[in-house]
């Protein structure tokens, strides 16, 4: 249900998550705030009982806006469509298999963003829950850890389910449909003018490792590196200001450097050699490093 008084949209993407979705929604609905918010749930054609659970929650809680797709359209089209429907000042995320454990999560982050106008993206810490029910707690940070835009280009340090960000009403590009993930490109396109990215040293969220999209992409380091390269190349060609080209070019080199070695490790020797030649001759100042990784990963397979 939309209201002019609502301050933010909480985006929840689901697909075949009947085991987890109740815990996800309960963590959102239990938030203690002095503002109202909208919960936008986009289910991508689940084949299990996820959609029945979602309907029950929608009937009980009018803050939930529910989109049930007749068929699976894919992770990125579902993400892009959800973002296009966010019309509030702020956006928060909680994946359909993660959940919030801090009832003051949204209030804390919104208060911080209101008090710090130069901060556009604010994450928190998260505990990691593995499929074997083992836990990993996050490292201690400063009370508030600040990151630059250059840091964000180098890697996505934010767990999506912890993030609250200002809604910049970014029109997400068509090439993103073929990306492996959408949150990182959204951040990059939202804060390229140098706004702050910060992470609070506060555990608010449980992140389920090796569930859903993470499981699919994490099965191969090669896929991860190629996914990063796809994003970098499209950002540099189509979006980011030229000021960032040198930073992106450096990251493209680093990803290709790692990819070259990983191809060898996985016995894709021809692919590795095809990367080795241009890497070596186009980066003679790094030739020793490239040469060492290339042959070391062949020998130590």
UniProtKB/TrEMBL annotation:
Residues 9-140 form the Glycosyltransferase 2-like domain. SUPFAM superfamilies: Nucleotide-diphospho-sugar transferases. It comes from Nonlabens ulvanivorans (Persicivirga ulvanivorans). GO terms for molecular function: hexosyltransferase activity. Keywords: Transferase. This is Putative CDP-glycerol:glycerophosphate glycerophosphotransferase. Signal peptide: none annotated. Pfam families: Glycos_transf_2. The keyword Ribonucleoprotein does not apply. Transmembrane segments: none annotated. It comes from the Bacteria. The lineage of its organism: Bacteria, Pseudomonadati, Bacteroidota, Flavobacteriia, Flavobacteriales. PANTHER family: GLYCOSYLTRANSFERASE, UDP-GLCNAC:BETAGAL BETA-1,3-N-ACETYLGLUCOSAMINYLTRANSFERASE-LIKE PROTEIN 1.
């Amino acid at each position: 249900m939309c209201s002019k008084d609502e301050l933010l949209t909480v985006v929840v993407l689901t697909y075949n998550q009947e085991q987890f979705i109740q815990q996800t929604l309960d963590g959102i609905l239990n938030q203690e705030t002095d503002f109202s918010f909208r919960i936008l749930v986009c289910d991508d054609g689940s084949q299990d009982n996820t959609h029945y659970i979602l309907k029950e929650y929608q009937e009980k809680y009018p803050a939930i806006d529910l989109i049930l797709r007749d068929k699976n359209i894919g992770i990125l089209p579902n993400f892009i469509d959800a973002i296009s429907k966010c019309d509030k000042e702020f956006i928060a995320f909680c994946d359909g298999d993660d959940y919030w454990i801090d009832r003051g999560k949204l209030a804390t982050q919104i208060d911080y963003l209101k008090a710090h106008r130069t901060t556009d993206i604010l994450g928190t810490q998260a505990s990691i829950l593995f499929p074997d029910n083992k836990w990993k707690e996050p490292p201690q940070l400063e009370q508030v850890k600040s990151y630059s835009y250059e840091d964000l280009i180098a890697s996505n340090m934010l767990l999506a389910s912890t993030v609250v960000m200002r809604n910049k009403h970014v029109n997400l590009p068509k090439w993103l449909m073929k990306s492996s993930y959408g949150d990182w490109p959204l951040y990059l396109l939202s804060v390229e003018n140098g706004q702050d990215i910060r992470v609070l040293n506060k555990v608010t969220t449980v992140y389920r490792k090796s569930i859903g999209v993470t499981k699919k992409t994490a099965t191969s380091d090669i896929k991860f590196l190629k996914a990063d390269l796809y994003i970098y190349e499209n950002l540099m060609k189509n979006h980011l200001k030229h000021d960032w080209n040198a930073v992106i070019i450096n990251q493209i080199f680093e990803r290709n450097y790692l990819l070259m070695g990983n191809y060898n490790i996985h016995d894709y020797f021809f692919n590795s050699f095809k990367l080795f030649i241009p890497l070596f001759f186009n980066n003679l100042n790094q030739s020793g490093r490239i040469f060492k990784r290339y042959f070391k990963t062949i020998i130590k397979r």
